[in-house]
Amino acid sequence: VQLQASGGGLVQAGGSLRLSCAASGRTFSNNVVGWFCQAPGKQREFVAAITIGDSTAYADSVKGRFTISRDNTKNTVYLQMNSLKPEDTAVYYCAARGGRITVISRSPSQYNYWGQGTQVTVSS
User: pLDDT, tens digit, for every residue of 51-65?
Assistant: First the structure.
């Protein structure tokens, strides 16, 4: 499955963005999908993930501000980002686990398919 992330941009602190992760090649309605971020000089970090049954998990730093959701009719997963902070600035990647895996992982190494990343910049 091929993933395409979009929706990044430049926003002021306190603003909002909605990222989209669209799958092509085949449906990813049977995959756990996650969002990760990577700031310059830092390792890629877990942000949020969603299971086939719409169970979700979030990094502590984004709880209450970010919401992950999926629309299987559009083969797309979203990350609604509210109350953005300058420390949220990073490249955001979406990723999917293998089709038979139903458990969320917070480790990037457990995800088989990756999108190209979309830049989010939050100014103070």
Answer: 999 999 999 999 999
Specify the pLDDT at position 98: 85
Distance, CA of 66 to CA of 73 (rounded, Å):
22
Min mean pLDDT across 10-14, 30-34, 57-61, 100-104 is at 100-104
Residues 93/115, Cβ–Cβ less than 8 Å: yes
Alpha-carbon gap, residue 24 to 26, rounded angstroms: 5
Mean pLDDT, residues 75-87 taken together = 97
CB 34 within 8 A of CB 21: no
Instruction: Report the C-alpha gap between 61 and 65 in whole angstroms.
Output: 9
62: CB partners within 8 A, 6+ apart: 47, 48, 81, 88
Residues constituting the chain:
124
